[in-house]
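BUG: 3D viewer hangs when loading the predicted structure for this chain

Environment: internal workstation, default settings.
Expected: structure renders.
Actual: progress bar stalls at 90%.

Input used:
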Amino acid sequence: MRTLLILLKNECLKFSRTNQIRAKQKQAMLGYLLCLLAAALYVFFVCKISAAFSVSNNAETILLSLLVPSAFTCLVFDLAAGILWGGGLAAFDAQMEAQLALPVHLSVFLISKIFVVYVTCTILNGMLLFPAAVLYGAINGCGMLYYILLIADVLVLPIVPCLLGTLAGAQLFRMLKKLSV
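Structure tokens produced before the viewer hung:
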């Protein structure tokens, strides 16, 4: 567990060093930041449009017009983050061979790589899902259990798309690396 915490700290420090990123990684980071900007604009839009929905509207309208598109957008962003960011981490890490030589299990090493992607996707999912889900819960008169399950949903939602995206992205980047050589 101590080794996992050290590797997680290392990955977070690597993430924060934007001045040491190569040109291709800067372009990928710029694309990801544009996706985050689009997500922030989407959250702003949801907050503005929630005022248009009054308490007299039924829950089905809110479910179909806000909550389902928000969940679908979260899945698409999580998959894109897994492909673009997680796949790049798994395929292009310059220190991978040196870190694999350490007496650390491969699973701990990969968890520390993907954890940063997972946390970012969880924050993004929270920004996208909470406004629509809170409005849905307010109209339905949901209790505390609904909000606890909502938090659990936000924590669990990015796991599968991020992992699938990371696997697909790693294979894609490896194929592109072989083609460019």
